[in-house]
């Protein structure tokens, strides 16, 4: 680890800067800079942020902290932000939750989960006046839309269509492919006519498109609506519709992941509506499905056990593919575990149940299950 004087000299020379030029930037004499670099003195602590900003490094880097230490400190800092956000969720302090997430984003602008968290609170809870929140919201969602992972773009679009001014929604058209031009629809068209016409492939693609459409309709959101009773009823309706599309006697099917998520959302709504016993019943069912989900080998594809979806198979994370093709070769080994880890760790879901978070019954349910992706 270089002494700070040697670090200053190295940074200055990389800039082709003289000691006198650096002294003018900092408002000190060039003799002071010389003493620092020779190890005869140290810069005042008040000068360190200015010195670091001038050379576009962090104060840790200026002081010579090694890479592993900096990495550890960053992860510790991120976890502190996440812990504080969780406390705000439990206490329903939306203003502080927003401020904490925004501060985390400012400190770690490439951590899209912080951008997403701050934008979600703005969209669903309006912790600050709209005229104050909208410019920040646009900054956050712009950052999410510009990066390459489709998941974050989807999250950004979902929030934009909740919070953005309607006359600006058209600006998002470049990120929202029309349904008629979606890849799945185009693939169906490919197999319906022309040189690649295939009744079997067309049938499989039609089933895949229908499955994805239904899955999208049943996508639940972990945000408290104005009427939790009505939301719980909607989740129950989604489960009944799915049961019409499957064999209810066998949980090990392609709807497993979706049913688990819907039951979690239903449990949350029931707890919010103070229907505690029904909430525990839904949560118990969700955890049973969760345990079943992680007992299934990562490479196994799940069937839907229905003539409507006889030609498709589904991964543990809920991604559907034609049975004949299976999981595409570009999807690396272990990615199913990673997808599930990013989607939900059910052990941490207790933050959504503040009214029962400390109850032994809830803790007993959560403690019996494995971590996501294990």
Could you give the count of β-strands? 3
- Number of helices, counting only DSSP H or I runs of 4 residues or more: 17
Largest sheet: 3 strands, antiparallel
- Radius of gyration over all CA atoms, rounded: 26 Å
Straight-line N-to-C gap: 38 Å
Number of domains: 3
Oligomeric form: single chain
What's the overall geometry?
elongated
Helices and strands, in N-to-C order? Answer: HHHHHHHHHHHHHHHEEEHH
Bin the helical content: 55-70%
Secondary-structure content class: mainly alpha
Average of pLDDT: 82
Tell me what you see in this structure.
- With 374 residues, the protein is an all-alpha fold.
- The protein folds into three domains: 4-63, lambda repressor-like DNA-binding domains (434 Repressor (Amino-terminal Domain)), CATH 1.10.260; 87-176; 181-367, no CATH class.
- It has 17 helices and three strands.
- Strands 1-2-3 form a three-stranded antiparallel β-sheet.
- Helix 2 (19-26) crosses helix 3.
- It is elongated, with a radius of gyration of 26 Å.
- Residues 328-336 have low confidence and may be disordered.
């Amino acid at each position: 680890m270089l002494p700070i004087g040697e670090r200053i000299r190295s940074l200055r020379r990389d800039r082709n800067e003289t000691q006198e030029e650096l002294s003018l930037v900092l408002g000190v004499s060039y003799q002071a800079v010389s003493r620092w670099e020779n190890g005869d003195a140290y810069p005042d602590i008040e000068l360190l942020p200015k010195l670091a900003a001038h050379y576009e490094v962090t104060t840790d880097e200026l002081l010579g902290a090694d890479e592993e230490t900096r990495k550890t400190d960053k992860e510790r800092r991120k976890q502190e932000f996440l812990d504080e956000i969780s406390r705000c969720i439990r206490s329903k302090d939306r203003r502080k939750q927003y401020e904490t997430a925004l501060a985390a984003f400012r400190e770690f602008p490439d951590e899209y989960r912080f951008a997403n968290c701050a934008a979600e609170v703005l969209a669903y809870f309006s912790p600050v006046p709209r005229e104050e929140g909208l410019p920040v919201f646009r900054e956050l969602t712009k950052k999410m839309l510009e990066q390459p992972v489709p998941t974050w773009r989807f999250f950004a679009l979902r929030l934009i269509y909740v919070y953005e001014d309607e006359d600006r929604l058209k600006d998002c058209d470049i990120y929202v492919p029309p349904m008629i031009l979606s890849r799945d629809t185009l693939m169906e068209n490919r197999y319906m006519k022309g040189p690649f016409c295939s009744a079997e492939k067309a049938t499989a693609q039609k089933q895949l498109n229908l499955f994805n459409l239904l899955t999208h309709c049943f996508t639940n959101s972990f945000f408290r609506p104005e009427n939790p009773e009505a939301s719980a009823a909607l989740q129950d309706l989604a489960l009944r519709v799915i049961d019409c599309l499957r064999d209810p006697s066998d949980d090990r099917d392609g709807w497993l992941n979706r049913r688990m998520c819907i039951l979690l959302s239903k449990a949350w709504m029931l707890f919010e509506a103070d229907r505690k016993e029904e909430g525990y019943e839904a949560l118990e069912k969700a955890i049973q499905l969760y345990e079943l989900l992680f007992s299934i080998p990562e490479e196994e594809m799940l069937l839907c056990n229905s003539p409507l979806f006889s030609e498709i198979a589904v991964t543990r994370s809920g991604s559907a593919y034609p049975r004949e093709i299976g999981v595409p070769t570009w999807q690396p080994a272990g990615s199913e575990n990673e997808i599930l880890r990013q989607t939900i760790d059910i052990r941490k879901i207790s933050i959504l149940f503040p009214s029962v978070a400390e109850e032994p019954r809830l803790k007993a349910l959560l403690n019996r299950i494995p971590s996501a992706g294990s």
